[in-house]
Each structure stands twice: as structure tokens, then as C-alpha cells.
Amino acid sequence: MCGIVGYTGPREAYPIVLKGLKRLEYRGYDSSGVALLNHGLKVYKKKGKVAELEESLIGADVKANIGIGHTRWATHGEPSDRNAHPHESASGRLAMIHNGIIENYALIKKELENKGYSFKSDTDTEVLLNFIDDIQQHNDCSLEEAVRVALKRVVGAYCILLIDKEDPHTIIAARKGSPLVIGIGKGEHFLASDASPIIEYTKEVVYVNDYELAIVRPDELILKNLGNEKITPYVTKLDMELAAIEKGGYDHFMIKEIFEQPKTIYDCLRGRLDVAKGTITMAGVENYMEQLKNAHRIIIIACGTSWHAGLVAEYIIEELCRIPVEVEYASEFRYRNPVVNKGDVIIAISQSGETADTLVAIEKAKEQGAIIFGVVNAVGSSIARASHTGAYTHSGPEIGVASTKAFTGQLAVLTMIALKIAHNKGTISEERYLQLLQDLHDVPEKVDAILKNAEEVKAIADKYKDSTDALFLGRGYNFPVALEGALKLKEISYIHAEGYPAAEMKHGPIALVTETLPVIFVATKDSYHEKVVSNMQEIKARKGRVISIITEGDELSTSLSNDVFAVPPADEIVAPMLSVIPLQLLSYYVGIAKGYDVDKPRNLAKSVTVE
Ligand code: M6R
């Protein structure tokens, strides 16, 4: 959460920083601000989205060749101008931006207050900044040294960028737990939370690791650890095009990303799945095949939509590989005392690869000897690097806060992993294996066919947009899809929605059914279908409004439903990649009909780097 940008070099810093903030706005949009150095320090900040900051700065003096900027997802202190970053030190010399949480800030704040400091904001960032300034003043040391000393006392997560008006070309940066990428240009450097603000200027980047500190000047990048030892920066080439992070003619990133799915799923399968040869090529699985196929247990850890993908994977892996699977919320796993034995494999699923809870859960499992297999979208991200092995989803940058194409990419990767293990282990017949390869291969085309009927979902959305609640029901492979449909509707349309296993409904939620409650059944034809149809009858008998996602040609479900949306027939193992699409569209169209900002829903952020 929170996006940070920095620039030092010969160009005008403000336009670069501002554009970078717009690209990173998905990480938080409670407030934004910039600090620029040009014969003195200028700090401008504003509550609200980056566009509001931009408007407030029309005509302001923003001339500078060095600058830092921040877009905030509030943790300490309400969203306000006062709590917006950058913060200035009490001496007026330093400005700092921060992504993360300083857990022991209250103690440090008390110490500083005892020394006579007072604070203008409620943030942990201002405390850390003055702590650094105080160390520098009292020890007569360099800023770099003061940062190092301060960070050794800090408990929590941070990525910080600092500028000093006495040193008008240098940005000091450091990270632990929150991401930082440095782009290397010719006589200039770019800093950001991810590569999207950098890609336009250079493809050469350095991913800074935890406990590293960077001293960044136009023509120099020095990396050190907190022990003041130099580290050789490892330069990698970005495999990303600018077009991937722009809307490309769509009104919103969310709908662009929904419509990209035939291509992103295809990209995920491309080079891996070969139907003619009957093979799946995945080095991350092959290199760890013995550990994977002999795993006593697989524990899947993830959050949000990625956790739903994990639930689908639980059904698939248990069915095909006959390995027991548990799916855990990373935030719960990390704080209890989980039993992880040697021989257990952890699959960590994350779109951003930066989710703090998942990252810490990985570290915890690693300490107990587990093998970590990362299923990650963001290349080079912290979770990808913390994993022993893994597979990228290759969905491309996902910018809409609601996860859509990442989910189907995760399902495609997890299905391939399961098939590969099952085939190697001999727990799947050759015939079924080959059939499932073909089914998987056909998914992009079927998703494309579904998207051609998006207007039908729009009509349903218009009909039900004023509902205050909704119930999503599904069984088996479609139960996690029901959960995902409910999550999408909640976060994008602010309609209270619950997902349930369809059979569980009679144990409580059925009490909610009235003539106005939309009950959305994910009811594609699979081995649970007859049972789901019975559940539909039960809702119908109570005059509930039934909306069903069905398989083409399913007349019985159609007759029981007030509204239906049909998807092409598919094996139940790959069906979630199809049945989720109309639910993504439903939340999008309801959100739009209600006039909401679907790319930046309230209170949310894309990359949840705080616990
Ligand atoms: O980047 P991750 O996949 O680790 O993120 C996990 C969740 O924060 C994420 O899926 C979140 O629930 C989305 N807003 C769902 O649309």
C-alpha cells in the first residue's frame, strides 16, 4: 500500500513524479504529495486523488531536477492534508516519504517529545523522519549514516525515500518489507514502488532487497547493507511494455483487464501446455517434482481473490494428485502456531507478490523447513524472490484494484501444476490427462465467447443494481467462484454480498431469502449439478430472485431462474475460469451503474503491504 516515486537527473522532476504517482495510484488514493529541491525545499500535498494535487499545483513553482512523491493508503492518521506525505523534519532540512508501518513509533515518539519535539501529523512517518534528523544532528554524521542507525531501531516495514536540502542531487532510499525498484537511465535515476512509473524511461532496473540502503545520484547508484558494506547492484531488464499499463481505449482498467483474459490465459499456457505432445513444461515444478509428488500435505497460503484461487486448487489437487491440501488465510497462518512438517509443501499465491501477510507467512513456513512454491504475477516481486521455486501467471500488470485476470491466470497455473504432478505420480489416467490438456487449451476461446455476450450481464446488472444485499451460491469447484463473485460485488459495488456453499444455505442463510433478494447460483453442469438444482428449487419455493450462471442448453436451470447467463460447456476442473467471468462483469456493471470509481474503490488499495 502507498506508492512512492523519486527522480534525480537532468530532466524536470515534477512531471515525472506526477505521472509516476498516477500510475501507482492503485496502491492508495487517500492523499498525495511531492517534495522538490531547487534552491530550497518545496513540499506540496493534498487530501484526495492525484488529480486533486495536480489541480492545486497549477501555476505553482514546481521547477526542480530532483523530487519525490507519494500516494497514500492511510494507516496512522485519517486521510487529510496534514497526514499526507512527504513530511518535513522539524529542522526544515529533510523531506521523506514512506510506505509501510513503523510498529514501535509510539516509543520513539515519546523519546523525541521528551527532547522537545512536537509533531504536525499523526503519522509514524514523521516520527521516523525526526528520529533520523535528530540522530544526524547529535552525532554530526552523514544522512546515510543517520538513516542506518535509525533503521536498526525500527520495528516494522518500510520503504523510505529522503531528500536533504543541503545535498540537492541525492535521494537516500531504504527498504524492508515494502517494495522498491530503481530504474537506471543515462545520467539519471528513477525510483518507484513498482516498475510502472519507470518503464517509459528505461528498462534497466535494480530490485532493492530488504535491509538494503541506496544512495542515488544522477550518475551514481550505491547500494549498501545496514552494516555499511557495499553491495553490487544486480541489474535486470524489464519484460514489460508501456501499453500494458495504459487503458488502451477502455473506460477503466477493470473492464480492460476482464476483456484481456482470453489473451492472458493464453499467455499463461503458451510455451507450457502442448496438447499434441501431451506435455506440460514447467521448470519450477520439474525441479522440485520429487518433493511435490511426495508431499505429505500441501498448504496453500494467500489472501483475498488469491485465496479463492487456492480453494479451487484444493479441489483440483486433491482430486487429481491425491495429496491432502489445506488452504489458509496468510494473515491467520502467520499469527498462530501452525504445524508445518518436513515434507510439507507451501504454495503461496499472490498477484502483486508483495502482500505483507503472505510474505511473512512464507518466512514462517520456511523457518520450519517447508518448500515454498510461489504462484505470482508480478515478476521480480518479494514473494517470487522469497520462494524456493514457482511459476509466474504471466497475466501482465493488473492495475484495477479488483483482481480479475490474475485470478484466471492463477487457476490456469494451478491446474497445470496439478496435472503435471498427477501425471508424474500416476494418479490420473492417460485418457483423462490428455482430455484435460485439451480442455485447458480451449479455455481462452471459451472466455472470448463469454465476453462477446457481456451486454447480457449488463442488462442483469441494471435490473439488480439497487439491491442492498446478494447471496452467491455454488458447490464443489464453483463454491470458491461464488465466494469470488461475492467479494467482487462487495468491493466494486458496495453491495453487501455473501458467498456460501449452496448446500450450507439451509443451515442459516436461507432465512435471508425474500422476494427481493438476488440469489446468484454458479450452476454450471458438473458432478454436483443435480444437487445445486435442488437448492435452486428451495430458493424458488421461497420466492427468492434466482440468477443463474449455467451451461449452455440447461433448460431445467433456466426454467427455475429469473435470469440466466450461459457459458460454454467445459470439464468441471476448468469451469471456474469460465463461470467467474460473468460475475466479474456483474460487479463491474453494477459499480458503473451506481456511478462508482471501479478502478479505485473506497478504502482499498491494490497492493496490501501492511498487515
Ligand atoms: O496481490 P495479492 O494477490 O496477494 O492480493 C491479495 C488480495 O489483497 C487481493 O486479492 C484483494 O482481495 C483484491 N482486492 C480482490 O479483488
Description of the structure:
- There is one protein chain.
- By secondary structure, the chain is α/β, with parallel strands linked by helices.
- The protein folds into 3 domains: 3-243, 4-Layer Sandwich (Glutamine Phosphoribosylpyrophosphate, subunit 1, domain 1), CATH 3.60.20.10; 248-451, Glucose-6-phosphate isomerase like protein, domain 1 (Rossmann fold, 3-Layer(aba) Sandwich), CATH 3.40.50; 453-611, Glucose-6-phosphate isomerase like protein, domain 1 (Rossmann fold), CATH 3.40.50.10490.
- Helix content is 37%, strand content 24%.
- The chain contains 20 helices and 27 strands.
- The strands form 5 sheets. The protein has an 8-stranded antiparallel beta sheet, with helices on one face. Strands 5-6-7-8-12-13-14 form a 7-stranded antiparallel beta sheet, with helices on one face. A 5-stranded parallel beta sheet has the order 19-18-20-21-22, with helices on both faces.
- Helix 17 packs parallel to helix 20.
- The site of 5-amino-5-deoxy-1-O-phosphono-D-mannitol (M6R) has 16 residues, from helix 10 and helix 17.
